[in-house]
Design a protein that fits this description.
FAD-dependent oxidoreductase; five-stranded parallel beta sheet; 2 domains; 8 helices; FAD/NAD(P)-binding domain; CHP04046_FMN-dependent; FAD/NAD-bd_sf; Auxin_biosynth/cation_transpt; oxidoreductase; 426 residues; seven-stranded mixed beta sheet
C-alpha cells in the first residue's frame, strides 16, 4: 500500500508512525476530521500479526472485542477467535475502508525538533516535517534473549518466540521452551499437540479460565469494567505495565491452558531458569509455587465473578471449581541438553522497547515514554497503542478507539492553539 499511488509531501499537519491497529485507528480519527496527515509503516500494515506470529496463532480475546473506530467486528462468530490470517485481513480491510494514507516500507530513523518548533522526521524515504507526531508502534520492539544463551552448546538451535512458526521449522529432537507467558504456553502446546517432546520452563505468569458460569471470562470482566479501569485506579498503578498477561488460548474454539494436564500427558515442567553450565540447565525450586500462584490468580477471578453475580442476583449456572490434576516433586531440577537430546530452544521471555531514534526529552530513566494518556511532555508529540497506556484495553483491539479519540481532541486543540498564535503574530 502506498497511499493510493501518491508521493510523500515535504510537510504534514500530523505524521503517524506505525501502521498497525493503533496507527490506523489514529488515521481514521484524523480522516474523519479531514486533518492532513500521513501514516508511515516500516514494513507492511499489520506487520507484527503477519510476521511475528506462528501458523496456528489466534486471538485470546473474543472477536467482539475487535472494535476499531468505525470498524467493529461484523463476522458471524463474535464469540470466536480470529486466526492469524483473519486478523491480518481485518486490519487490511480496515485500512481500505477509509483509504488510509499509509506509506509502507518507510522507516523513521530519527525524530527531532527544529529551531522553528516543527518536528523533523528523517526516514528511508527522505526528510519530512510535521506540526504534530503520533508514535503508534506499541511497546514491543526488540526480542529479548538473555546473555545466558551464549553459554549453550553450539549445535542447539535457538530462536525467539517471534521467530517461531511451526514444529516443522525446528530440527528433530526435544524442544525446551523458556517462559510461560501467553506466547510460551501456546507455543509449548503447539509443539506438544504435534507430538514433540517438550520441556517448559515455568515462570510467574498468571493464568485465567476460558469460561466460567456459562460465559467467557472476558465477557464477565468486560461487564465488570476491568477493561475500562484507568491505570491510575489500578491497585498496582503504573506497575501493572510490567505484569505478564494471563495465559489462556482461543485455540480449538477457546479453552484453558492447563499445564498440569500437559504434564500428565508427557510435557516436562521446570521452574525458572537460573543458569547453564556446560550444557546443563539449572532450574529454581519454584515450579510448585508458580503453578499454585497461576491457579490462585484464576480462582480469584472466579471469586470476583461469583460476587458480581450475587450482588446483581444474576441467573448464571453454578460450576465446580478447578482441582489440580498434578503436582511436581519438590527440589531444584536440572536438564542435560545433550543427554536428553534437546535440539531446540524457544526463548519466550518478551521484548524490549526501543525509542532511541526519538531525540527528545520525553523518557524516564528506563527509556519508557513519560506521558499522560499518551500525551507526552513535548507539545505536539503523542504515543498510542502502549500496553496499559490508559486502560487494560489500550494495547488491544478493544481500547484503542477510546485512546485515539482522546488524542484526536488534543491534536485538534493544539492545531487551534497554533492557528491562534499565528493570527496574533500577523
Amino acid at each position: 500500500m502506498n497511499a493510493q499511488g501518491t508521493k510523500l509531501k515535504a510537510h504534514y499537519k500530523v505524521v503517524v508512525i506505525g501502521g498497525g491497529q493503533a496507527g490506523l485507528s489514529m488515521s481514521y480519527q484524523l480522516t474523519q476530521r479531514k486533518i492532513d496527515h500521513v501514516v508511515l509503516e516500516k514494513a507492511r500494515i499489520g506487520f507484527s500479526w503477519r510476521e511475528q506470529r506462528w501458523d496456528t496463532f489466534c486471538l485470546v480475546t473474543p472477536n467482539w472485542q475487535c472494535n476499531l473506530p468505525g470498524f467493529p467486528y461484523a463476522g458471524i462468530e463474535p464469540h470466536g477467535f480470529m486466526k492469524k490470517d483473519e486478523i491480518v485481513a481485518y486490519i487490511e480491510s480496515y485500512a481500505r475502508s477509509f483509504r488510509a494514507p499509509v506509506f509502507e516500507g518507510v522507516s523513521v530513523t530519527r525524530l527531532r525538533k527544529s529551531d522553528d518548533g516543527l518536528f523533523v522526521l528523517e526516514s528511508t524515504a527522505g526528510t519530512i516535517s510535521a506540526n504534530q507526531v503520533v508514535v503508534a508502534i506499541g511497546g514491543y520492539h526488540k526480542p529479548r534473549i538473555p546473555s545466558l544463551a551464549k553459554k549453550l552448546p553450539a549445535h542447539i538451535r535457538q530462536i525467539h518466540s517471534s521467530e517461531y512458526r511451526s514444529p516443522e521449522q525446528l530440527p528433530d529432537g526435544k524442544v525446551l521452551v523458556i517462559g510461560s507467558g501467553q506466547s510460551g504456553c501456546q507455543i509449548a502446546e503447539d509443539l506438544h499437540l504435534a507430538g514433540r517432546k517438550v520441556h517448559l520452563c515455568v515462570g510467574s505468569a498468571p493464568r485465567v479460565a476460558r469460561r466460567y458460569r456459562g460465559r467467557d471470562v472476558v465477557d464477565w470482566l468486560a461487564d465488570m469494567g476491568y477493561y475500562d479501569m484507568p491505570v491510575d485506579e489500578h491497585p498496582l498503578k503504573e506497575g501493572v505495565r510490567a505484569k505478564a498477561n494471563h495465559y489462556v488460548t482461543g485455540r480449538d474454539g477457546g479453552r484453558d491452558i492447563d499445564l498440569r494436564l500437559r504434564a500428565l500427558e508427557g510435557m516436562s515442567l521446570h521452574g525458572r531458569l537460573k543458569d547453564c553450565n556446560e550444557g546443563v540447565m539449572l532450574f529454581a525450586d519454584d515450579l510448585a509455587a508458580n503453578l499454585d500462584n497461576a491457579d490462585r490468580s484464576s480462582e480469584n477471578i472466579k471469586n470476583t465473578i461469583d460476587q458480581y453475580i450475587a450482588d446483581r442476583r444474576l441467573d448464571a449456572p453454578l460450576e465446580n471449581r478447578y482441582l489440580p490434576l498434578w503436582k511436581p516433586n519438590p527440589g531444584c531440577s536440572t536438564l542435560d541438553l545433550v543427554a536428553e537430546q534437546v535440539c531446540s530452544i524457544v526463548w519466550s521471555v518478551g521484548f524490549e522497547s526501543s525509542f532511541d531514534w526519538i531525540e527528545l526529552p520525553v523518557f524516564d530513566g528506563r527509556g519508557y515514554p513519560i506521558h499522560s494518556r499518551g500525551v507526552s511532555c513535548e507539545s505536539g508529540l503523542y504515543f498510542l497503542g502502549l500496553p496499559w497506556m490508559y486502560t487494560w484495553g489500550s494495547g488491544r483491539f478493544s481500547g484503542v478507539a477510546r485512546d485515539s479519540a482522546f488524542l484526536l481532541e488534543k491534536i485538534e486543540l493544539e492545531c487551534f492553539t497554533k492557528a491562534e498564535e499565528i493570527d496574533s503574530s500577523l
